[in-house]
């Protein structure tokens, strides 16, 4: 070593000191990079699969929407009278009607890309109108026995998608839509056959699955695949597919070795259709660029070690100097509470805190501005004037519209408080967004499903027409958003802000016209001139209903209630109060009649709640008739039941709830399945358990959740899903209601006592 130049020794020592740690770091980081690259590629592939799935679902939904729109045209009503092929071909007019239906089906084919054919079969007829074969008798058309199997999966009134093979050996996915009473009185079924190759094209166009793709239905049968021999067969024959079908997660990915090749499988389950989309990729192909990059990094690291040993120290000192001085200054001038961090981490944490404080201030400012505007509108509605109200409403004319959610009690029963709050926010935002230029509108929530819109506008007919168009748009948008109809009451106009409270009263009175006019309309306030007329009351019908009630004759009770409704509708003038008085009186007289006959009304109406409040909350005359009829039916069922019948029904109800408490139970459907009315079912549960139906169901879920909290390692989110709750907030709310503490507190308290 003595002969070796000192510079060379220094170079060798420095090289060894720098090279060994750097080489180890490079190797370790390369391995981590490869693993992370695999995960990132897998997540990217999963995102690509989800995009392909959504694209395919949108294509299927377009076909379904076009089919539903066709049913709304009532084109099929033109052939409804002709149940036989001979009747349909009896004259030129009937043939022309059938050809019109055929033309609409052809237009439906052209409106959706990849549609193979479509046909319509009128219920109980012996012919089919088909775009592929024309108008044919059933005996000369393909068998329709598969329709029964396809419709067994139908939920609600929407259609179903069913994969199958045509007699022509073409593979299609058929959209089957039975016509329903909501859209038309014609009974029949529309079938639209979408080529399976169209689904394949969607996946190919999006680049999904280098090795292949597979679309399976909820039963595991193959709906679409590049290997047509696998269509309609079980996909579980492939080992990896079998594993995926057993997965409970909605989406995911897995790496598997297949025939000596490492493959990436991604899957995504569709909530809308229940189908499973599967893609497969070659990991070696996906990682080719990553391997090449790793080799380049090794070579580059060797070069950097030699070239950067000396330069690094000087550059780091020079570059970090401004940051070190800035951190030193910030620490001396202000106590940010950030300790134990280097300069860059200190600056990052400090700037994040500043940004969070700024965002919080902006959010608070925006919320205060919104609250101030809403408060000013509330003051204006009460007749109190504020300077902010004058700024918000500069035009001379005022109009008030009240948006009322129809059948509000039903809406409340179907939605949770979080959803209702979100709906209110969206509806208020939408209402205000439609009044921007010549009309100024502000919307506030008044409670009980009612929104008040104060509209300020100039003196032009065009603006008034625009206001009515905006209110129509609000009605349609609210119906779509809430999945529930709304009725809008519109007041007269006023030229001063002092008249706004009176306009609110007018709009509220206009809403009451819903009782006769029906729900879902725009009702304009009109001054009523019939207030001085006497109330009407069907005294004769009252006596007949009591007689029919004693005889258990529900058919004649229904007819008598229909006569009362017709009498009210035919009256030249009848007030809202008069209508409520009639039905309140019918209910009261019926209860009095039962008590006079020593019948326990408490046992009949247990669990029904305040029926007078329920009557007052009903919007339309038809709903009032239905409520009183159900009221009478409960009485007849109670009077006619044999001893022990309630216990038998009660046992079936308790068993039904105990077996299906994890599911989303529709109580009306449950009552039909058991064979009793919904209100009678509620009374039985109340008599047996002392709790309402919904409380008993939630109690079952909470009791099971308590067992899982103590006997399993599941998270609270998993337990909530397992016992039937779709979100943790609802689970926490009901758990606190029955146990007085959150689930986490219950689990901790049990562990402490044990």
What does this structure look like?
With 754 residues, the chain is of the alpha+beta class. The chain folds into 4 domains: 47-285, Beta-Lactamase (2-Layer Sandwich), CATH 3.30.450; 393-524, Alpha-Beta Plaits; 539-640; 691-754, Homeodomain-like (Arc Repressor Mutant, subunit A, Orthogonal Bundle). Helices cover 58% and strands 14% of the residues. The protein is built from 28 helices and 16 strands. A 6-stranded antiparallel beta sheet has the order 3-2-1-6-5-4. Helix 1 (6-72) packs across helix 8, helix 12 (417-433) runs antiparallel to helix 13 (461-482) and helix 16 (539-551) runs antiparallel to helix 17. It is globular.
Describe the sheet with the most strands: 6 strands, antiparallel
Give the % helix.
55-70%
CATH architecture annotation name of the largest domain: 2-Layer Sandwich
The end-to-end distance, rounded to whole angstroms, is 73 Å
- Whole-number tally of structural domains: 4
Can you identify the CATH class of the largest domain? Alpha Beta
What is the H level of CATH, i.e. the homologous superfamily of the largest domain? PAS domain
């Amino acid at each position: 070593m003595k002969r070796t130049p000192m510079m060379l020794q220094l170079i060798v020592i420095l090289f060894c000191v720098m090279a060994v740690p750097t080489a180890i770091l490079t190797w370790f980081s390369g391995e981590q990079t490869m693993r992370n690259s695999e995960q990132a590629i897998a997540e990217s592939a999963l995102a690509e699969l989800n995009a392909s799935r959504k694209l395919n679902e949108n294509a299927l939904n377009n076909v379904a929407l076009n089919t539903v729109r066709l049913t709304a045209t009532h084109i099929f009503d033109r052939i409804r009278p002709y149940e036989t092929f001979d009747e349909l071909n009896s004259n030129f007019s009937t043939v022309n009607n059938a050809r019109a239906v055929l033309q609409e089906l052809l237009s439906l084919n052209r409106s959706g890309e990849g549609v193979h054919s479509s046909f319509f079969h009128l219920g109980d007829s012996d012919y089919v109108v088909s775009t592929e074969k024309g108008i044919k008798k059933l005996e000369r058309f393909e068998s329709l026995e598969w329709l029964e199997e396809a419709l067994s999966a139908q939920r609600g009134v929407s259609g179903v998608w069913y994969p199958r093979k045509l007699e022509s050996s073409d593979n299609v996915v058929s959209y089957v839509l039975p016509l329903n009473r909501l859209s038309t009185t014609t009974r029949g079924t529309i079938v639209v056959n979408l080529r399976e190759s169209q689904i394949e094209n969607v996946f190919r166009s999006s680049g999904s699955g280098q090795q292949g793709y597979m679309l399976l239905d909820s039963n595991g049968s193959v709906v679409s695949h590049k290997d047509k021999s696998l269509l309609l067969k079980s996909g579980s024959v492939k080992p990896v597919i079998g594993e995926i079908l057993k997965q409970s997660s909605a989406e995911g990915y897995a790496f598997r070795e297949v025939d000596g090749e490492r493959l990436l499988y991604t899957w995504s389950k569709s909530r809308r259709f229940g189908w499973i989309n599967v893609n497969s990729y070659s990991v070696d192909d996906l990682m080719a660029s990553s391997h090449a990059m790793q080799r380049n990094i090794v070579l580059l690291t060797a070069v950097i070690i030699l070239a950067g040993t000396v330069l690094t120290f000087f550059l780091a000192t020079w570059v970090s100097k401004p940051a070190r001085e800035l951190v030193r200054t910030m620490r001396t001038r202000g106590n940010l509470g950030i300790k134990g961090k280097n300069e860059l981490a200190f600056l990052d944490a400090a700037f994040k805190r500043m940004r969070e404080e700024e965002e919080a201030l902006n959010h608070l400012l925006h919320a205060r501005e919104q609250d101030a505007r809403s408060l000013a509108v509330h003051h204006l509605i009460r007749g109190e004037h504020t300077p902010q109200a004058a700024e918000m409403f500069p035009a001379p004319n005022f109009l008030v519209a009240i948006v009322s959610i129809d059948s509000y009690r039903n809406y409340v029963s179907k939605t949770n408080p979080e959803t209702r709050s979100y709906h209110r926010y969206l509806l208020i935002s939408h209402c205000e967004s439609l009044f921007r230029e010549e009309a100024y509108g502000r919307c506030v929530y008044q409670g009980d499903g009612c929104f008040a819109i104060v509209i300020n506008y100039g003196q032009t007919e065009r603006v008034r027409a625009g206001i009515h168009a905006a209110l129509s748009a609000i009605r349609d948008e609210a119906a779509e958003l809430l999945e529930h109809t709304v009725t809008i009451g519109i007041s007269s106009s006023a030229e001063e802000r002092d008249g706004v409270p009176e306009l609110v009263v007018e709009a509220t009175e206009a809403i009451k016209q819903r009782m006769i006019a029906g729900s879902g309309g725009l009702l304009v306030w009109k001054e009523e001139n019939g207030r001085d007329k006497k109330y009407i009351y069907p005294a004769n019908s009252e006596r007949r209903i009591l007689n029919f009630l004693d005889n258990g004759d529900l058919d004649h009770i229904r007819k008598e209630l229909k006569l009362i409704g017709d009498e009210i509708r035919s009256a030249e003038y009848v007030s809202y109060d008069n209508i409520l008085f009639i039905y309140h009186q019918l209910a009261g007289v019926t209860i009095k009649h039962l008590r006079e006959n020593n019948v326990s009304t408490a046992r009949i109406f247990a669990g029904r709640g305040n029926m007078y409040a329920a009557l007052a909350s009903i919007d339309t005359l038809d709903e009032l008739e239905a409520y009183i009829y159900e009221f009478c039916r409960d009485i007849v069922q109670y009077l006619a039941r044999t001893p022990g019948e309630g216990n038998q029904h009660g046992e079936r109800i308790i068993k039904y709830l105990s077996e299906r408490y994890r599911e989303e139970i529709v109580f009306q459907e449950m009552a039909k399945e058991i064979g009793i009315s919904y209100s009678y079912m509620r009374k039985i549960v109340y008599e047996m358990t002392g709790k309402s139906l919904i409380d008993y169901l939630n109690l079952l879920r909470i009791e099971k959740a308590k067992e899982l909290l103590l006997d399993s390692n599941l998270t609270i989110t998993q337990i909530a899903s397992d016992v039937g709750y779709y979100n943790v907030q609802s689970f926490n709310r009901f758990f606190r209601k029955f146990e007085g503490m959150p689930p986490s507190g219950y689990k901790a308290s049990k562990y402490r006592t044990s």
